[in-house]
Specification:
It comes from Pteropus alecto. InterPro entries: MACPF (IPR020864), MPEG1 (IPR039707). One of its GO terms (cellular component) is phagocytic vesicle membrane. By secondary structure, the chain is an alpha+beta fold. It has two domains: 332 residues, no CATH class; 91 residues, no CATH class. It is built from twelve helices and 17 strands. Strands 2, 3, 6, 7, 8, 9 and 10 form a seven-stranded antiparallel β-sheet that branches. Strands 1-5-4 form a three-stranded mixed β-sheet, with no helix packed on it. β2 and β3 form a beta hairpin.
Length: 488
Amino acid sequence: MALCLAPLLLLLCAVCGGTGDKWEPGIQGCTQAPNVSVLGALPGSGWDNLRNVELGLVLWHNYSQCHTTHDGEYLIPDHVYVVPWRESVVELMDKWLSHTDTWAASINAEVSYLPMLNGKFSSDFQNVKKHDLEHETVTTRVQVRHNISSVKAPEIPNLHPAFWQHLVTISDHLENNETRKAEYLAEMLVLRFGTHVLTHVDVGASLVQEDQVKRALMSDKAIEKTSISLAASAVFFKVVNVGASASWQEQSQHFQDYRQSTLSPKTRSYGGSPFYPGITLQSWQDSIGKRLVAIGGSGLPLPTLIKPEALPEPAVHRVAGAMHAAISRYYAVNVHPGCLRRGSPDFNPQANVDDGSCDAGGRTNFSFGGVFQECEAVSGEDIENLCQNYHVANPLTGSTSCPASYTSSTLHRELKTSTQAHPECKRQCRSCNLFSECCDDVCTTRVVKSVVRLVTSWCVPAQTAMPVASGFLFGGLYSSGKPNPQWV
């Protein structure tokens, strides 16, 4: 089998040798501009599009040509395109029903897999969801965003050596028909490098304020949504010491209502000076200078990188297929179907994909008061010890009984037979001679048969309308010959 790999390995080594020079960074050789900084906000990192986390480097950056940005301030890799793009905007985003990430909005919109899951496991999304569910809030966002330039990866990029070597290892196992090992390594690649690669990064700085505001404020008919937006904007400019406009003074009551309804204000800076109480918008803008960071990005699924330029035929297609399958599994295992409609009796706060159960009519959870099992003697000896193994208490009551408002209903009856062997010994004596006896211990085994009756019962609601949270959530019962009445 190793001989069959030889042609493939030779081809792979040829590719490796052909890219060896490209894997020399060469930053130290750029001596013509010793005071030029290296641009740190670059495309090429792996990206987990469920968690919005930047992972290991997928693309390799080579500085052999010592290119700089148009203004000569930053050293950039070869074949990376930097487009100057100076834009300053004040943007208000009111996300009443869904939350988008300030950084990852573009790449989260990528639709190759299950787009409804993109970003749903990020820390920001989970924090917003937690406030929404626990405190009945909505999220408002105001940001000042300075896009200085756009950095794009080359159309045919160089792969990072660590990423490339991982692909070669997967290819080796596929060539040897070691499919399970290849699948495992493909899943480890997703863990290490993510689901996508960042191919486009926006460089600049942004100052963002996110407020968690009580939902009751939005439901107040006296306050329009635009007024809430204006209030959020006014609060932001007050925080960064920018005077409010005169037109806002006419709606100062809305401003006060907004401040009183805000539960968790959060202001963060990306690039420029770190945010601190008392900082002014002007001083933060003046500090951007050489404190540029990536403030947004977009990208492509990792399998799109697996081209003949990276791996030879036919390995390229098999490796790309293994990666695609691993990413699809990663998405699939994180699908939690359920009702997403807040206020519905079937609303499931853990769900992230709507399965239509909100409109399923009578398909709601039954009230269920638990289950227990009793044991009673029928015949035999040592019944109490035998029944100890079969007594099962109801988790809701701690005993073989139902809670208040529930009655027991028999599910199953069964006789259990136990056979145990008990050794018994008796001393038997006989005359040995005229004046003495000879005695021996004679042992036999006595078989004891015991029978007990097991009765399994569940607790049925005693009335149609039950108190809220009075029992377990219960989806019904079924057997091979009897369907679940919940779904009939």
